[in-house]
Amino acid sequence: MTTTPSPTAPRIAIVGAGPGGLTCARVLQRHGLHATVYDLASGPADGNQGGTLDLHEEDGQAALKEAGLLEEFTRLARPEGQEMRQFDAADCTLRFHHRPADDEFAAPEIDRGRLRALLLDSLAPGTVQWGRTLTGVEGPDDGPRQLRFADGTVVDADLVIGADGAWSTVRRALSPAVPEHIGVNFLEAWFHDVETAHPAVAALVGGGSAMAADGERGLFAQRNSGGHIRVYVVQTGPADWLARAGLTDRDTEQIRALLLERYRGWSPGLLRLLTDNDGPYVHRPLHALPVPHTWETSPSATLLGDAAHLMPPLGVGVNLAMLDASELALALARHDTTADAVRAYEATMLPRSHRMQKALDGAATGLLSTDTFDPGHPDAG
Length: 381
Description:
Elements: E1 12-15, H1 19-30, E2 35-38, E3 52-54, H2 60-66, H3 70-76, E4 84-88, E5 94-98, E6 109-111, H4 112-121, E7 128-129, E8 134-138, E9 145-149, E10 154-157, E11 159-162, E12 180-191, H5 194-197, H6 199-205, E13 209-213, E14 217-224, E15 228-236, H7 241-244, H8 252-262, H9 268-275, E16 282-288, E17 301-303, H10 306-309, H11 317-334, H12 338-360
Parallel strand pairs: 1-2, 1-11, 2-7, 4-13, 11-17
Antiparallel strand pairs: 3-6, 4-5, 8-9, 9-10, 12-15, 12-16, 13-14, 14-15
Helix pairs in contact: 1-4, 1-11, 2-11, 11-12
């Protein structure tokens, strides 16, 4: 249900139209509260929407239930995407294979773009303002806060919710912490029309995910909908490793030659994932916030998702962001003041994120391990 805010209703500004920010806005609207979402993208289709996401029953799906969207998600999701394969790097023999049962729905996949469309379509018209690049948050701790945008406009808000990701601008109003490189890098590659153009890659990856590693290097492939497969080339090293090699991520042929040298001794069947991709590679150095990341509670600003607890992309990021968003929205609906709501939300969110940050600290190197397949996987979120 959506209602017009009363004169005493808090002015809530959500920065970031990712799954977390949109989930928060949707749950707020279901409880009669209004929020405006600001995003720097020019529109909902602007830029790369990202790959596939596995939404877990206990967090991502629980948030969608609070949003009244679980049934629609069930229709759109791909439970077959829960299939997992692990191959030996040297000879491409299958070492591990999880085939999901027909009724398995613990962590089905959905493309990030489809999830975003599902959430956007559920919101009242005008909820999201596109093309709004936030440059800073000012104002006293007890509010109101002023949001300053690159176009020169200023918006007052009683509560600013930072759902603006790894390099959050809202975070700077609460914490001096900045993400740090964790010594692991992804190089992303795409394969299109795979059943026709890349049948060997399609057969290797199957309906879900596939990986291989030799202790120093790794490959992780994900089936996306629409005949697409996304591959992450996983390596340790400095964040500027490409520049140190005299390359940019537009130097496709030179990168292919470098990768073939680095992955020498790997099976030819797996090397296709390095060299047969359509289009250029995308360089994605991995960063994380300090462990634990905390701040002094403010009645006029808070954070959720990667803005609050950026971790290695191992299948938890979007799920925690959506759970954060749902819990924050419910706290705002159930408490008389934003101060009480933020305090209650952070009392649950911060300890949970600290536990998860600690558990995943250093875990990204597990993608290079030759041990039995770990069901956690990159969600690029």
